[in-house]
Amino acid sequence: MVAGLISLSACESRLDIAPVTNLTDATFYRTEEDAKSALGACYASIYNPDIFHDLVTTDDAIPFLTGDAARPLVWRYDITPETNYLRFFPGAYQSINRSNIVIKRLPDIPMDEQLRNRYIAEAKFLRALAYLTLVRFYGGVPLVTEPTEGAENLELARAAVADVYALIEADLQEAEQVLPPKYTGADVGRATSNAAKALMARMYLFRAGTDANSPFWQQAAQKTKEVIDEGSFGLYDTFADAFALSARGGKENIFEIQYLTDVSGHGLGRGYGVRGAPIYPGGGAGIARPTASLYQLYTEADQRRDVTFITSYTYNGKTTNLSITDPNPANAISFQKLWDKTAQTNGGEGTSVPLIRFSDVLLMYAEAQNEVNHGPDALAYEALNRVRTRAGLNSYAGLDYQAFKEAVWQERRLEFAFENMRWFDLVRTGRLIDAVKAENSFDRNALIKPFHTLLPIPQQDIDNNPLLEQNPGYEQ
Q: How confident is the prediction for the chain on average, in pLDDT?
């Protein structure tokens, strides 16, 4: 015992040394490589909400009606603050916190100044991406611009919507000025100035809403036109090419979540594939199926239909034809847009998940330009028709202001099905309630009310932060 005490006394002065195998705030954020790793953590936590919400709270999909009882409740708008699948706070704020760490810590790291500024601008783009999703879902949310350290300052009230947008705009304006328009080599996939401009345009369109006189239309038109004219991005020759494995980092994906087949993949193809079908590793989950109103909107000539949906499959020499109306999910026409058919593992699909495609920029420009001029000009037609002709459809001509607007809205539904766009588009254009009520297949009978254009602040997050106030209509 005496020997042990002598030994402990001799070592005592060294006990406060951080273990060399553990990374802490004291040992990290010191080198350029540390900065790169910290930014990599931001990209690893890119916030993209569960696609289930976008599908079943609109007129695009019907959930599998047995099993998890919460899914049909979301579909029918029987929504409360405790409802599953609507708690988007934790993922968004994890992404925001990691971005805040990069923004806070990198200025103290001795490294190439130009690279440091680029990394910080990338982090600000990712922070803006998360906040834009939050503000469109919930309205005003807590604004956190410093890293969360310990248990202090965790209770924050909701900021005004205008203040959230002000931060988003400031972050994107810096990213726009600092980031390059495009990358090559291993950097392909990082945020660019074009991505910042496109995301800014998305924000401006949402803020313009249904106000025909909003100044945000002009700003959206300007930013999208800058992306179009810069020339780094374009459309693939076919719609199928845009979702091939080879499209990863390609000319149409302005910003995407990149995956690697059977290494770091997703399960969207299997998850929303034909229920029980053996063509997927582990069998299809059939989480949600497309509505007839969506499927039948595509004409025979529209190339997007066969890329977006699976209508039959062959296994062991037997062909199974699928139906848009058969209530059995094992026989349902299903989504296949992001399915990686080469994946051998459950959740190993390597197709990119697009967050901003060039076709989105073209359609945002067409819509904004129509609003600015209160009618389509030649440039608006050109943007809209580039998307249509790529899909194999005839060009539009001779449309008035309202007809052109509705043509763009329809084109967006056809182009971006299964890409987390529909709910936001319906909300910003004031059409959510009518669209949901019109889609009543499988006895939906949705309980949708005007307050449902915002989601409830999740009860668990209110319990964790008593300063959060609930959105109107969801108070308990």
A: 92
The model's pTM: 0.93
Minimum mean pLDDT range among 29-33, 49-53, 203-207, 419-423:
29-33
Q: How confident is the model at residue 410 (pLDDT cuts 50, 70, 90)?
A: very high
Q: What is the 3-state secondary structure (H, E, C) of the chain?
A: CHHHHHHHHHHHHHCCCCCCCCCCCCCCCCCHHHHHHHHHHHHHCCCCCCHHHHHHCCCCEEECCCCCCHHHHHHCCCCCCCCCCCCCHHHHHHHHHHHHHHHHHHHHCCCCHHHHHHHHHHHHHHHHHHHHHHHHHHCCCCCCCCCCCCCCCCCCCCCCHHHHHHHHHHHHHHHHHHCCCCCCHHHCCCCCHHHHHHHHHHHHHHHHCCCCCCCHHHHHHHHHHHHHHHCCCCCCCCCHHHHCHHHCCCCCEEEEECCECCCECECHHHHCCCCCCCCCCCCCCCCEEECHHHHCCCCCCCHHHHHHEECEEEECCEEEECECCCCCHHHECEECCCCCCCCCCCCCECCCEEEEEHHHHHHHHHHHHHHHHCCCCHHHHHHHHHHHHHCCCCCCCCCCHHHHHHHHHHHHHHHHCCCCCHHHHHHHCCCHHHHHHHCCCCCCCCCCCHHHHCCCCCHHHHHHCCCCCCCCCCCC
Please say if the pLDDT value at position 9 is more than 60: no
What is the percent of the chain with per-residue pLDDT over 90, rounded to a whole number?
88
Domains of the chain: 211-255+352-430 (1.25.40.900), 268-349 (no CATH)
